[in-house]
Amino acid sequence: MKTSAKIYTALIMLFLFAPIAILLIFSFNAAKSLSVFSGFSLYWYRELFRDAETLGAVRNTLVLALSAAVLSTAMGTAAAVGIFRLRSKVLRAAYDTVTNIPMINPDIITGISLMLMFVFVGRLFGAATSLNFWTMLIAHITFCLPYVILQVLPKLQQMDASLPEAAMDLGCTPFRAFLKVEIPEIMPGIVTGLIMAFTLSLDDFVISYFTAGNGFQTLPIRIYNMTKKTVTPKMYALSTIIFFTILALLIMTNLIDTGPGVEKQEKKERSAASKRRTKLAFGIGAVLAVGMAAVLFLGAPKKPVLNVYNWGEYISDGSEDSFDVLQGFEDWYLANYGHEVEVNYTTFASNEDMYAKLSSGAVSYDVIVPSDYMIARMREEGMLLPLDFDNIPNYQYIGESFKNLYYDPDNLYSVPYTYNFTGIIYDANRVDEADTGDWDLLWNPKYAGQILQFNNSRDAFGTAQYKLGLDVNSDDPADWQAALAALKEQQPLVKSYVMDEVYNMMESGEAAVCTYYAGDYFIMADAQAPGVELSFYAPERTNYFVDAFCIPTCCQNKELAEAFINYMLEYEPAVANAEYICYGCPNRLVYEDGAYAEDMGEEAMEILYPNLDDFGEKYEQFAFRNLSPAMLGTINTLWEELKIN
Amino acid sequence: MRKIIELKNVSKAFDGQTVLDNVSLDIYDNEFLTLLGPSGCGKTTTLRIIAGFESPDSGSLSFLGEDILSLPPHRRNVNTVFQRYALFPHLNVFENIAFPLREKKVPQDEIRGKVDEMLRLVALTGFEKRSVTSLSGGQQQRVAIARALISRPKVLLLDEPLAALDLKLRKDMQQELKNIQKATGITFVFVTHDQEEALSMSDTVVVMSEGRIQQIGTPIDIYNEPRNAFVADFIGESNILSGIMLQDRLVRFSGRDFPCVDEGFARNEPVDVVIRPEDVVIVPKGQLRGTVTSVTFLGVHYEIIVDIGGFKWMIQTTGFADVGDEIGIYVDPENIHIMKKSEYSGLFGDYSSFSNEFDELSDAESEAEP
Ligand SMILES: Nc1ncnc2c1ncn2[C@@H]1O[C@H](COP(=O)(O)OP(=O)(O)O)[C@@H](O)[C@H]1O
Ligand SMILES: [Mg+2]
Q1: Contact between chains at A165 and B73 (C-beta distance less than 8 A)
Q2: Over the stretch A303-356, which tens digit does the pLDDT of each residue have?
């Protein structure tokens, strides 16, 4: 019994802490891979401290968490005292319940309702952007408050009710009695509430996501937005640091809260503990106060601000010895226009997220980077401004193949930033060279159980349609039925349907064949385990996509936005971005550059720039376009049918 | 003697339930006054009205002739020793006692001197640095008294301060409180439900029941001349019989006429007759005769229950009688006390259901209830 209990406890511990242990270990990995530990290194920690964007997000998160913690603690304590003082029992119970609602309310509902309220109030006062630091702060205070009340109220209830009366009896006004007697008595609750509020605010994602405004991005949002590419190991390093910080706070909380109902024998120790916790409380208070002061001093200076909204990990940001493009733009602007600007850089995780944020009307961005089909949609819905190409002379460097594409046929609204396409990645050590070259590899029974397929309908159907020579944008249901048949035929061979998991499964050799984007192949090849030899090819017919700079109608400073787009086409930033992102670059200054070709290597150049002359043709013929909602519904039904089998 | 506090026709109800009913009470300088009554009779409420934590629904409260009902607690020259002491756990002994002076911004030197003096008064010298939570009940009690006395209030209110102490300590503290009161000359308003404590400590006893004052008087008055059956029963043991005052100095009860010393009642007025158990003498023949139904040995004396014509008397005597014996009793006219009939008549003073064991049982039960 005893040993089995021990084993059980050990298993639970393992279950709870294994993920964190793995995170911790891999934060010290010398390589990028999650499957192979190739030696101890502080590389990712160094990288982390060079990443200005992430550090900015950390700073934002801390500012927000500190302010939210301090304010919600003050307000929550006052509220708890108010509820406690209520004479009517019914009213007291009612308040108690009402304050608990935000706690049991799903975050997503709190988030959406707060966003709606801010937008509504913002509109009322005619503000261009209604979401900003302050709205986020209000949101965080809102969800922290009940927790503070929940900590403080029981302390008030446990307190001997005659203590404040004794104080008044001895000459204190009611307020002095509160300060001198009640506050010290409920201090453990206040401190616990403060720490809880701080940690809650620190790791909130859902509510922050809905109430985040221009440029003010917290860490959880930034990490989420990295998922277009892969979460870099420096995030493991950051997570490790955060884990230990929170652990330390938790231990402190437990030291402070010795709990109610202390027995007589323990009274002596309790008084010592009470002194200790008073000191601790003051210590924490002082640290918070200094933090707040520091943060206020670091407050943003007043310069023109350019709000850029881009994919996560989609710009050269100075990490891993790269060129810091945003800093570069600020310097370049000062040099060319004679005054300072500040770039407020925010990231998103999908076109749909970006679209939702913009159409909420709660934010305003000056430059956005949607994908092609989303540009077509936004253009049709009048959400984009035509560009003034006099302000973007560098547009001349865009390759002719990348102009007049369907989403912007007259080249009015967009300047292409990157392009990418789907291909097949395989382990050359296991896959016969003769079997490669087209989509059939994904249907080859020789590799049964080693094949990975996309876990999203559009991409998965695409592979079958390309294989069968069908139009991927067809509105004939028969075409889709045919593709479905092919996918069903493929199903027994498929190891699993994957999205982000594809990296680890390919790097570790768990699977031998997959289909994914060319740019991502380089990431996998970089991190492949010993004995794995990843290789890539793009079949003749495949999906191409272009991401391009646009200016949305909510833009506040169009000339500055155009200057920014123009700068992004300059040689140095363009090369830096292309090398950082590893996608294809439509800029001649880049793809015709010798130094760039050398940096990327022969293989990468061959893959990314096969023959650009017919890019436009292939793109128009094979790229995914926006499908009608009805068509999307049909596809989804078919996809469900496949997945249910 | 100077009148310090005067309550006039004070009434108070909580949630429609009358807790104080037309209470009028004068409190004089330098006196030790005790509010005595069973739990729930409104003693604490009376103290809280004086201290300023509750305000009466009607009536007036004056302090040295001035109406103080509108003054908040911190402006009243009255201090309280709370039932559970209400010491401040985050302050040590010294700081607890110094608390009122610190509020008044008294200079440190002066504070030190006064706190030392108080510590001497309550015999806690050397405990300054101790945490109050590490003290015994009796020591906490003394700190609470010192803290309440340090700013020399005119009146000190003490709400059952000894209830939480064990018997031995309680006796010591009773003496000590009395001494402190004498030494300081401060008026004490003391609350207790323990009649012995009230009799032994007080200059004046105020007996309360159900929110009304039943009797105010010196301990001896209250004991010897209880005004009604409630007081007679609550203060000590009493045999209370229903009788008829035939004429001055002659009362009839238990089917016999008894000479007594009371006068001033109407002829043939129905009255209550109180006879203390220790005043009943066992004699061979006697005025009344009955059968012994129970005998309990209590050390100093026996407690004997005698059935006389269906009414059970309690007798305290040093002589012995056995259960079943037939005995005669005699009561001296001096010891027969006549009271007017009241709402309490017939409720108390018959020992029919009396049994020591039963008493203890029911005590234990009522203690077990929260
Ligand atoms: N704040 C209050 N609210 C409601 N009822 C109360 C309150 N304080 C006292 N009472 C009631 O008033 C009555 C008298 O109480 P109290 O003065 O404390 O009696 P005592 O001190 O003589 O035991 C009791 O029945 C008690 O329940
Ligand atoms: Mg009481």
Answers
A1: yes
A2: 788 999 998 889 998 877 889 999 999 999 988 888 888 898 888 888 888 998
Which residues contact residue B233 at a Cβ distance below 8 angstroms, ignoring those fewer than 6 apart?
A: B240, B344, B347, B348, B349
Residues of B with CB under 8 A from a CB of A: 51-53, 72-74, 78-80, 82-84, 86-90, 99-100, 103-104, 131-134, 147-148, 151
Tens digit of each residue's pLDDT (9 = 90 or more) over B47-97:
999 999 999 999 999 999 999 999 999 999 999 999 889 999 999 999 999
Taking phi over 0 as left and psi of -120 to 50 as alpha, with beta for the rest, A411 belongs to left
Q: Which residue of B has its CA nearest to A184?
A: B90
Number of domains in chain B: 2
Low-confidence ranges of chain B (pLDDT < 70): 353-370
The domains of chain A, with CATH numbers, are 2-46 (no CATH), 53-255+272-298 (1.10.3720.10), 305-414+550-609 (3.40.190.10), 420-545+632-644 (3.40.190.10)
The C-alpha of B37 sits at a distance from chain A's nearest C-alpha, in angstroms, of 22
**Is residue B75 domain-shared with residue B51, that is, in the same domain?**
yes
Q: State the greatest distance between any 2 C-alpha atoms of chain B, in Å, as a whole number.
A: 77
Judged by average pLDDT, the poorest of A333-347, A398-412, A453-467, A536-550 is: A333-347
End-to-end Cα separation, chain B, in angstroms:
43
In angstroms, how far is CA A536 from the centroid of its own chain? 28
Structural domain including B292 reads: 239-367
Q: What is the b/e burial string over A622-638, where b = at least 16 CB atoms within 10 angstroms of the residue's CB? A: bbbebbeeebeebbeeb
Q: What is the 3-state secondary structure (H, E, C) of B88-153?
A: CCCCEHHHHHHHHHHHCCCCHHHHHHHHHHHHHHCCCCCCCCCEHHHCCHHHHHHHHHHHHHCCCC
Asked if B174 and B253 sit in the same domain, the reply is: no
Is B115 part of a structural domain of the chain? yes
Based on the domain organization, do B252 and B158 belong to the same domain?
no
Is residue B230 one of the residues assigned to a domain?
no
Q: Based on the domain organization, do B174 and B207 belong to the same domain?
A: yes
For A198, list phi and psi in degrees, rounded to 5: -60, -50
The confidence band for A358, taking pLDDT boundaries of 50, 70 and 90, is: confident
Give A571's pLDDT tier (boundaries 50, 70, 90).
Answer: very high
Indicate if the pLDDT at residue A391 is higher than 70.
Answer: yes
CATH number, residue B286: 2.40.50.140
Domain end residue (candidates: B178, B199, B224) = B224
My answer on whether B58 and B176 are in the same domain is: yes
- B13 with B19: CB under 8 angstroms? yes
B302 and B203 within one domain: no
Considering only CA atoms, which residue is closest to atom 26 of ligand 1?
Answer: B40
* CATH code: domain of residue B128: 3.40.50.300
Q: Which stretches does DSSP call E strand in A396-461?
A: 415-427, 451-454
Q: Is the CB of B45 under 6 A from ligand 1?
A: yes
Q: Which of B195, B224, B253 is the last residue of a domain?
A: B224
B186 assigned to some structural domain: yes
Tell me the ipTM for this assembly: 0.84
Cα dihedral sign, B208-B214-B215-B220:
negative
Q: Do A170 and B99 touch (CB under 8 A)?
A: yes
The burial of A556, by beta-carbon neighbours within 10 Å (0-12 exposed, 13-18 middle, 19 or more buried), is given as middle
Lowest-confidence segment of A41-45, A49-53, A220-224, A273-277 by average pLDDT: A273-277
Classify the phi-psi angles of A456: left when phi > 0, otherwise alpha if psi is within -120 to 50, otherwise beta.
beta
Report the pLDDT value the prediction gives residue A33, as an integer from 0 to 100: 66
Q: How far apart are CA A607 and CA A598, in angstroms?
A: 14
Q: Are residues B270 and B130 in the same domain?
A: no
> Nearest Cβ partner of A169 from B51, B83, B133?
B51
Same domain, B203 and B296: no
What is the distance between the alpha carbons of residues A24 and A16, in angstroms, rounded to a whole number?
A: 14
pTM: 0.66
